[in-house]
Amino acid sequence: MYDVASASIDEVYGDFWADDAAIMAAAATSLNPRGPDVLYGHFARFGVGPGDVVADIGSRDASYAVELHRRFGCRVVAVDPVPLHADLARTTVAVAGLDDVIEIHQAGIEALPVGDGSLAAIWCRDVLNHVDLAAGLAECARALRPGGEMMAYQTFATDLLEPREAARLYRALALTPDNMDPAFFEATASAVGFEITSSDVMDSEWRERWAEDGARDPGKGLIELARLRRREADLVARFGRARFEATYYWALWGTYQFLGKLRPTVHLLRIPG
Question: What distance lies between CA 125 and its chain's CA centroid?
Answer without folding.
Answer: 6
